[in-house]
Amino acid sequence: MFASENGIKAIFFDLDGTLRHTVPSVSDTQREKMSEWGVQIGDEENLEVGRWEHYYWARSAELMGDSEKFDGDDEAFWWNYMSKRLKKMNLKPAEIERLLPLLNTFFSEEYAPKNWAPPELYELLPQLRKAGYTLAVLSNRRSPFIDVMDELSLTEHFDAVMFAGEVGSWKPNPEVFTPLLERFKLAPEETLYIGDNYYADVVGSRKAGLVPVLYDPRELFPDADCERITSFDALGEMLER
Fold this sequence. Notes:
With about 240 residues, this protein is of the alpha/beta class.
């Protein structure tokens, strides 16, 4: 079904937010709960917060500073992070002060998301392997996640699964991509990297010489300066161009 005339021999995928999603999402759940508590968040504010989250978690200076400041105190770190999210929604200090404990209690005691993978993957991935592409997963996680892959019945579709913690480097650092490229004797330009975080996945893979593809189902980055897909159905169409 797919041709390799474009010179692409391998496709590497991000995990969280790309292959694996949590349902219901934190973003949707928080917005719903805040509405119940009398605070409405508009679509644009919601998207702006989503873009900021992607920036924050891409090893930003802000994240590194918070990690150092709250080292060993996870509760304080997450309280600070939730406060920042609310500020990005342009809420007044009094609203933030009221909502923080409510959100903290809900997410720590009631929120119970499940892992979910886009259903079109289960048709697409076997087709990609049949077409001869090397498939791998490279996540910014610090520890192994094969249990998540197994739960989602994804493991069998990949030739390798790697987490950044075993490499000792994290996206967007380009070095994190090197071990997988060397393992399969791939040139960077022969490899697509697909991820949902522009600041980590696109910037990092581009620095390493890979071909970046932004998976953007929430349409956070409509003007991204790279190939962009909003569903995995579009990946097949892109490869056939």
